[in-house]
Structures are given as C-alpha cells and as structure tokens.
TrEMBL record:
Its cofactor is FAD. It catalyses: (R)-2-hydroxyglutarate + A = 2-oxoglutarate + AH2. PROSITE patterns: 4FE4S_FER_1 (PS00198), 4FE4S_FER_2 (PS51379), FAD_PCMH (PS51387). The keyword Cell inner membrane does not apply. Keywords: 4Fe-4S, FAD, Flavoprotein, Iron, Iron-sulfur, Metal-binding, Oxidoreductase. Residues 634-665 form the 4Fe-4S ferredoxin-type domain. Residues 57-286 form the FAD-binding PCMH-type domain. This is D-2-hydroxyglutarate dehydrogenase.
Length: 982
C-alpha cells in the first residue's frame, strides 16, 4: 500500500490559507485606497459561490478579487504580500480535486482577463489572457485555420489559465500532446508582486539572469544547481507515458544544452509557483475534415484489449466508453443526432470511439476504412458504425464530453463522485489496471461508470456515492490509497490529467524522499513564505503547515448532511449540484444560463444559486447563527431576482439542477416572514384580469396606450413596456380562420383538433392562434379552439404558490375532458407547452398534448406546396429548445414539405422570459441578454427571421423595432388558396 508521508503540523483549513482576521482587515483597508480597478468581493454570497469546485470539498475563501489586467494582478499580490495573505488563482472552477479552493483570497481571472490576440497567422501563435475559455478561443481561431489542440471535456468553460495550471491534455493527446507542449511563454506575477516572464532560456541566459539578480534569480539558481545532479534519479522516477508526472515536471524542465524550459516547470504547478497574467501559445492547423468510428464489444475488457490492434490505422484519438455511460447518454441532446448512427450497437457492453482527420474526404474515408479493416480482424468486435458527416462527428464529440456529467446524475440517491477519476498507466498495462480497479470498487459494492482515453492509458471513473452519508465518506481514504498503490504498481499515476489539488499528499510516494525535498526547494525559490495556493502539492522549506490531506479538507457532504430530509425535498437539486460548471458555458447561443452569460457573475448562475440555497438551508437548519441565516437569505434573494426562470438549467445542466422550481419554493417560504413587493399584488390579479380585458380589446388597447396608465403601472408596480392588446378579439380572429369555438365536448369527433388557447397568445396575439388554425385545416375538417386558459405560471414564478394547485387542477380537469373525446389537443405557445410537460408533468401524465410542429410534422404529407420557394431563418423558444432540441428539425421538415426553406438557429435566451423582462429593475439586464446573440439575428439584412415564442417576438419589437412572425403565420400566408400548387 502507498505510504503517504507528510511533514509539519496544523489542520487543513489553516493549511489552505485562512488568514489572521487582523491581517485580513489591514489588507482590505490597503486594497480599498489602492488603484486596484477590478472587482472586490467580500460579501457572503461571493464567498459561498466560490467555496466549491467540481470536487467533494467545501472551503470558503476570505474574499474574491477579479483583476482586470496584469497590473491589477500585481497590485493585489503586492498588497497581499505586505500583509501575509495567501492568494490562489481560479479560472473555470472545474477542478475535481480542490485545486482552486482556499481559505485565503481567490484571484478570479475568468471575469475580466479574457483578451485574445495578437495572432501571428504565419507562425501559428497567439497570446491570450488566462481567463479565456477554450471553446471561445477555438471559435475565434477557426476562421484563421488554426486551433489550440488540447481537447478537454470541459472545453465550454475551462480557461486557458486553468489548463496551464493542470497541464491539461484530454482527447487526442497522443497526437497533440499536453498544454505544456504548446506553451511558448507565460507572463507571470510572482508571490511578491513582481512581473516575470517564463520561457525557454539557454545556458548563457541562465547564467546572466542569475548574475543580474533579477526576479527569477533565486529560481534559476535553484534549477541550475539542482537539476544536473538529479537527472538519473528523475529518469528512474518519471514514468515513460503520455500523461507523465507534471507539477513539477523536473524531467522536461532541464534542456539538453544546459538551458531551462521554464514553461514546462510552470505548467501543472496549480498556482503554487506564480500566477499567469498572459499566455503565448503555439497553434495547430485545423483539419479540414473529420470522421468517427464507433466499435462495439461485449464488455470494456474486450474493448480495451482491442486498442493496440487499431493503432496502426493512425487514429487521432481512441476513447473508450462502458455501457453505463452509453445508456445514460440516451437522455442527452446529442442522442437526437446519434440514435440512428449508433443503432443496435447501443445494447452492447463496451465501446471504442475512434476519431480520424484529414485534409480531404478521401483521406478521412481511407482512415475509416483502415480502422474498420483492423477492427474486422478482431473476433471480439461485434459491430461498427462509421461516419464523416460533420453533424454526427460533432454529436459524438459532444456525447463523449457529456460523459462526466452523465455519471454525476447517479442513481438511488448516489451520484458519480470525483476523487480517483483520472488515473493513468502505460497503455500496455491498461487492461489489467482496469480489471483490478473494478475489483477495488466491486469489493465495496459500488456502482460506477467508466470511460477514458484508451490510447493514452487514462481512465475516468466516478464511483456512485452519497457524500451526506458517513459510511460513504469513509470510503474516500481506502479507495484512494488502493488506487494510488495500484497505479504505482503498474508504472502509472493516480492523477493522470485533472491535476493533484489536495491529492498532493501522494507526491512523496511517487517522487521519493529525495526528489520531494527538491520540489520543496523549488517552491521555496518561487514562494518562500508559502502564500501561493497553500496546502497544495508541497510546502516550502521551513514553511508552516503542511499539504492538505484528502480526508481532512472539509467535505461538502458533511454540511449537506445537516440539512434534514423534511427541509430538503423541494431543494434536493441544490444538494445534488456537484459544481461541474456546465452553466458557465461561454457560448451565448446555448440557452443555459442567460443571467450568467450577460454578467459573468458566478453568483448569477445555477451553480452559484445552488451553493447559496445549500448554505441558506444549512444555516436555517442548524440555527446556530440567525444573523448568518438572514444574511445568506438576502444574498440568495438577490441572486434569484436575476434568474429568468427560463428552465434551461433543468435540461442542460449535467445533473439537471432546476433553479426556477427552487426559486419558486424559496420565495414562497421567504415571504412568509418578509413583506412582498407591491408588484405581487398585481401578479395575483394579472392572468384573470388580462383574460377579461381581452374580451374588450379595443377599450383595453386604448387604456394601455394612455400614458398615465403606463406610468401608474411603472411607478406603482415596477413594470414597464407591457404588451399591447390586439385590435381583434380571439373569437373574431378564429372565426375568420374557420375555427369553431369549443362549447361542448359532445360536438367534437375523434381525430379532430382542439387548439388550446393559452393566456399569452389568446390574450395578446390571437392572430398566431388563427394562423395555426388555418394550417391545421389542411389536416382535418374541423378545428376547435378553447377560450384562454389560466395556468398560474406568473404566480409560480413569483412564489405565490397557494393558488397554483387550484388553477392547475381546473386546467387538468378540462384537458382530461377534452382528451376523452378522442380529439387531438394541440398547443402553440412553447412556454405553455413546456409548462404542461415540465412543471405539470405529474398532473398531465397520460394526456397526449401535441405541440403544433409535432402534429404538422406527423402529417406533413398533407400540406400543400407553396408556389414560390422562399428562405426563412427561425429561432426556437429557449425553454423548448433546451429540453427538446429536435423540435427545430421538425420545423425544418414541415417547411421542406411545404416547399419552403427554413434554417433553424440557436440563439440562447432573448432576455424577456415572461414577466421578468417587463420588471423595471431588470430592463437593462434584459437588453444586455438580448444583445448577446438575438439582436444580431433579428437585425441581419437577409432572409426573414421567425420566432416561436411570444416573449421572444415581444422582445424583438421592443429593442429592435421588428415585428417577427411565428412559423405558422408564414405557412398560413404562403399556403393560401391562391398561392400553393394543388
């Protein structure tokens, strides 16, 4: 068994840099009068939101600083040095081992230090800020024909600074190497606040820099004196494998000519040596074409045994997946594009996913043919599927990236837990290593899923644990020790690519006492007082404290266990949040999470809100500090006020954290002892009042156009830019469309259509319902329509829950009565459709309620064909697109059947989200969200842009002055009697 040696004294929280209160007060005072221009956050909410990462730990920092540039960074670190305050850099916060958790000050570079460029397109180099997200960088580089090659599964939120900190690698590392292989230079700030540049330097430069006594003199002297005599020991210690021993990478730091590769030493050091301020990268030419092959086997062992036989085909990467991951993957958005591709192979027990690339389709096809041929030579292969279709290739990549999140969902109250998830061994040992790894977990009776980089020998495993249970927490130590010992016996590492963090306690076991002592000397040369990310990797010689231990750093589950089952049911999702950071996705076209995308504030994200909910529950339950509970409650209330309740998190979060539902429950509880805003009085009457007003649209329209009435609404209730009532009531619009009012269920025959009039379209846009009725007339002789139906959505969003069950019970009763006629129930407005399918899923179980595009797509062969082929673009409602991404493809199929061209686009959230965008205090943020992606689409000067959501169309009219049409309005217009071909 691996013996873990530690030195020094103290407990983990102190080791992780918790400051003396007096020193912290002096630091804050100095910072306040300095020229520091970035964000300064000592509020409880920011500290709570930064107390967790994607690990099992919980360590609140003393505060969070968000520097704007290198000078800000240096100033903060200079003041911190003056007062002995520990600092730890943080990027995407996706670390699985507590790498960026600290009791000291967090330096969050992701908020502002996000510049890209300059780019040298000839040499293939680029300079970036440490806070730049990998996917954003590669999107920026794509038009120039370049990419940053290391490909990690968290690419949507992982920052380049974080990738440097862990020397990240990911898929394709056997071809492209690690981050450090692409690191040309790093401008850093040292522990005392001085600037320095780390790069490759030759022997003469080393000697000159030592003689000059510059900021790196002590470091260079330590390396120049110590590395030459240790080369044999380093060669014996460092495994000869793709993953290697990074942090500190002694093997690759010493150059053959006597020079030093300082970037190799810095990469993987996890913020313990210096803090990156600007990073220069070498780039890789972007392949023009890609292809994938999915090979199926009876089980994972047979799949892994087949890997060596595939390597002669020269794949760019070979990944493996077990059946647990693939079965869970059926619930991901990527499955829509993969189901036909994978087909019957989805029932197998183990898989290899190989990716190839080339400059031509023929080259890619040749690679795939060779892969299939090599696989066919192996009797264990039960089947394969290949494709060079860009959509399938992209979907397969997304599916593989989603694997970590899939395991995090878990089963039976347990979820995939990161603590031994990235062990790596030489590929030749992988089959035996995986078999023995499985035996360790099986002996404990644990469920788990496995996947990883088969060509690099790296295994990702997340055992299913419930960290609120003491018996599950007690498994962290024995399993970690057993896996560390197993990896060492197979010539590998317990940490293959996700960094060490608090697992630094195993460093001495791997490096040996001599090299471990030298690591401490290097740490001393960079950071003699041990203030940079203390408690991680090593402590400097003579430094106080010691490296944190994996079972001494506070577990998040211990605090969660204090929350009683009686208090938790409505908020169970917040406790399930594992901090994976999927909600930090950089791309504005992805629906989750609009408030975070617009503000960059981690408190305004599902992860931040979940952390605040957990803390509020903990403080409320323990009742040890009523003032703290009240303070956290206020922070939570403020954070939730910017939540649009768009529900994208409930679909796109890997563990499906439903913040809007918890927001409603919190507001209901909070306002039992806190006064409600006057706006809530309006909301209680809003739905019945607008339905009544819709019966007299001309009068209501004139009242709402009267300036004084609008001012009353804005000043009294804080609502603005309310939608206008139509010129024509619903009954008249539907009569003109040939639809019949639903007066009695006896009038309706089976297979006829009942069009559900929701309280959005039925009140404010009856013309859309009328157009839908015209379209449905192509499918059936009779289309009936209901009066506007109350649904209680606005009440729920504001936590006015007492009347919601009554309203929804009445709605369900009507739906059940109408369903018994055998008619098809059809909903038009996505917000209403998704309400019935999400919030009311239990009540509507057994009822078939079709969305308009579902019924049109099912019967699209009955649609006439337009005379003129016209092109349109369309964006779906964010709630619907995030939960049912295939609805965009259905709309395209409907338009194609009608002889029209439709290009569906993803554009994230429009920023309206029902009443939220009309609340006066949110108007600016609403506009900011609209400007992320929607504005460019709406104001583009080419094909007409369509929108399925009522709120979306309202937002476009408000901020761009454009009247967007619903797709059914286009179909009704293009397919009129005089305009279509028989």
């Amino acid at each position: 068994m691996v013996e873990v040696m530690v030195s020094g004294a103290g407990v983990a929280p102190t080791a992780l840099g918790a400051p003396d209160p007096g020193a912290l007060a002096r630091f804050r005072a100095d910072l306040a009068v300095s020229e520091f221009a970035g964000g300064v956050r000592f509020d409880p909410g920011s500290r709570i939101a930064t107390a967790t990462d994607n690990s099992i730990y919980h360590v609140p920092p003393a505060g969070v600083l968000e520097p704007r540039d290198a000078d800000d960074l240096a100033l903060a670190m200079t003041i911190a040095a003056r007062h002995g305050i520990a600092v730890t850099p943080r990027g995407g916060g996706t670390g699985t081992n507590g790498q960026s958790l600290t009791g000291g000050m967090v330096l969050d570079t992701s908020r502002h230090m996000t510049a890209i460029g300059p780019l040298d397109a000839e040499r293939g180099t680029v300079r970036v800020g440490p806070g730049v997200v990998l996917d954003r960088l590669n999107t920026w580089l794509r038009p120039h024909g370049w990419m940053f090659a290391p490909s990690v599964s968290t690419a949507s939120r992982a920052t380049i600074g974080g990738m440097v900190a862990t020397d990240a690698s990911g898929k394709g590392s056997c071809r492209h190497g690690r981050t450090s292989d692409h690191l040309l230079s790093v401008d850093v700030v040292l522990a005392d606040g001085r600037h320095a540049t780390l790069r490759d330097i030759d022997a003469n430069e080393v000697a000159a820099a030592i003689a000059e006594g510059g900021p790196l003199a002590a470091v260079l002297s330590c390396l120049d004196d110590g590395l030459p005599d240790r080369q044999e020991e380093i060669a014996r210690t460092f495994p000869d494998m793709n993953r290697g021993l990074t942090g500190y990478n002694l093997r690759d730091t010493a150059h053959k000519d006597g020079g030093l590769r300082l970037t190799k030493l810095f990469a993987g050091s996890e913020g313990t040596l210096a803090v990156a301020a600007s990073i220069e990268l070498s780039l890789t030419r972007l392949p023009r074409h890609r292809g994938v092959a999915l090979l199926a086997y009876d089980d994972c062992d047979r799949a892994l045994q087949a890997v060596p036989g595939l390597l002669p085909a020269d794949p760019e990467a070979v990944e493996f997946l077990d059946d647990t991951v693939v079965q869970m993957g059926r619930s991901t958005p990527a499955w829509v594009d993969l189901e036909a591709f994978i087909g019957s192979l989805s029932e197998m027990g183990g898989y290899l996913f190989a990716e190839v690339c080339g400059d031509s389709r023929a080259e890619v096809g040749g690679h795939l043919d060779r892969l299939v041929a090599h696989a066919g030579e192996q009797p264990a292969c039960r089947g394969c599927a290949v494709s060079s279709d860009p959509g399938v290739v992209a979907a397969m990549s997304r599916f593989r990236q989603d694997a970590v999140g899939l395991l995090s969902r878990g089963v039976d109250g347990r979820q995939g837990t990161a603590f031994v998830e990235d062990a790596a061994v030489p590929p030749a040992s992988l089959v035996d290593f995986v078999r023995e790894f499985r035996a360790i977990l099986d002996a404990e009776g644990l469920s788990y899923g496995m996947f990883g980089h088969a060509d690099a020998g790296c295994v990702h495993v997340r055992p299913m644990l419930d960290m609120t249970r003491a018996e599950d927490r007690s498994l962290i130590r024995p399993i970690s020790d057993a896996v560390a010992d197993l990896a060492l016996r197979h010539g590998g590492l317990i940490w293959g690519e996700h960094g060490k963090g608090v697992r630094g306690e195993y460093l001495e076991a791997y490096f040996g006492a001599g090299l471990h002592l030298y690591l401490r000397q290097i740490k001393s040369a960079f950071d003699p007082e041990g203030r940079l990310n203390p408690g991680k990797l090593v402590v400097p010689l003579g430094g106080a404290g010691r490296v944190g231990r994996i079972d001494e750093v506070p577990f998040r589950g211990v605090r969660d266990a204090e929350i009683s089952d009686d208090a938790a049911p409505a908020f169970r999702g917040a406790i399930r949040c594992n901090g994976n950071g999927g909600c930090f996705h950089w791309d504005a076209s992805v629906e989750m999470c609009p408030s975070y995308k617009a503000t960059g504030d981690r408190m305004q994200s599902p992860k931040g809100r979940a952390a605040l909910i957990r803390e509020w529950l903990y403080q409320t339950e323990t009742n040890s500090n009523p003032e703290a509970a009240e303070s956290v409650g206020k922070e939570l209330y403020q954070s939730l006020s910017t939540c649009l309740s768009c529900k994208a998190c409930s679909s796109q979060c890997p563990v499906r954290i439903d913040i809007p539902s918890m927001k409603a429950q919190f507001l209901d509880k909070w306002h039992r002892h806190q006064p409600r805003p006057r706006r809530d009085l309006l909301i209680q009457a809003l739905e019945p009042a607008t339905i009544l007003a819709a019966h007299f649209p001309s009068v209501s329209r004139q009242v709402m156009r009267f300036g004084a009435a609008r001012k009353i609404f804005e000043k009294t209730f804080g609502v603005t830019d309310l939608p206008a009532f139509p010129r024509q009531p619903l009954s008249a619009a539907m009569r003109d469309a040939g639809a019949l009012p639903l007066r009695s269920e006896a009038d309706v025959a089976p297979n006829e259509v009942i069009l559900l009039s929701d309280s959005f379209l039925g009140v404010f846009e009856p013309e859309v319902l009328a157009a839908a009725a015209q379209c449905l007339k192509f499918l059936t002789d009779k289309v009936y329509f209901t009066p506007p139906l109350k649904n209680g959505k606005a009440l729920e969003v504001r936590g006015l829950l007492n009347r919601v069950p009554e309203i929804r019970a009445a709605l369900v009763a009507k739906l059940q009565d109408w369903s018994q006629t055998g008619a098809k129930l059809v909903s038009i407005e996505p917000a209403f459709t998704m309400l019935l399918r999400q919030e009311m899923a239990v009540e509507t179980r057994g009822l078939e309620i079709l969305s308009i595009e579902e019924i049109l797509n099912t019967h699209r062969d009955r649609l006439p064909i337009a005379r003129m082929t016209t092109q349109f673009r369309m964006v779906g409602h964010c709630t619907e697109t995030s939960a049912i991404p295939e609805h965009l493809a259905r709309w395209r199929a409907v338009f194609e059947a009608a002889g029209l061209e439709l290009d569906p686009v993803r554009s994230g959230c429009c920023g309206m989200a029902g009443l939220w965008g009309h609340e006066a205090e949110h108007r600016n943020l609403s506009r900011q969200i609209y400007g992320l992606a929607w504005q460019d689409h709406v104001e583009a000067e080419h094909s007409e842009f369509l929108a399925t959501g009522f709120s979306c169309r309202s937002q476009a009219r408000r901020f761009s002055g454009k009247r967007l049409r619903h797709p059914v309005q286009v179909l009704a217009s293009e397919l009129t009697e005089n305009n279509y071909l028989g």
